[in-house]
Design a protein that fits this description.
Layout lengths: L2 H19 L2 H11 L4 H14 L6 H13 L8 H6 L1 H19 L19
Helix pairs in contact: 1-3, 1-6, 3-4, 4-6
């Protein structure tokens, strides 16, 4: 993997983490702007999971939260209201914020975060 490819992967993973870490209000706004369902947040994360796996510790924990939400058919985890009310969404947010916080504290070491984090408005 060349440096350009690695930088692109890091950017995509970072953008997905920023979206998962966003507040429920910011996520609702993103879903509305993008014209997609709330599950698109998890699907976007899943798309970049393979790109960042090995580069970014902790991604599997977020994936496990989303997998558990998908497997649990007793509650609608994917409604707009669930963004603010569901424990799974809150857990995913906390995990993403932890990862972003760790990466911020060692920026320049393993992750080239010159503009950390990206504003959510850019994630469309």
């Amino acid at each position: 993997m060349d440096q350009g490819d690695a930088a692109r992967r890091v950017r995509l993973v970072r953008e997905a983490l920023v979206l998962v870490a966003a507040s429920a209000e910011e996520q609702r706004a993103w879903v509305s702007r993008a014209g997609v369902g709330t599950d698109e947040i998890a699907l976007m994360f899943d798309d970049v999971l393979r790109l960042g796996d090995g580069l970014v510790p902790g991604l599997q924990a977020i994936d496990a939260v989303f997998a558990g939400m998908t497997a649990d058919r007793t509650v609608d985890h994917w409604s707009v209201a669930a963004l603010a009310e569901d424990e799974g969404w809150e857990r995913a947010r906390l995990l993403a914020r932890e990862i972003l916080g760790r990466q911020r504290s060692c920026a320049g070491a393993s992750w080239p975060f010159a503009q950390f984090p990206a504003p959510l408005g850019k994630l469309t």
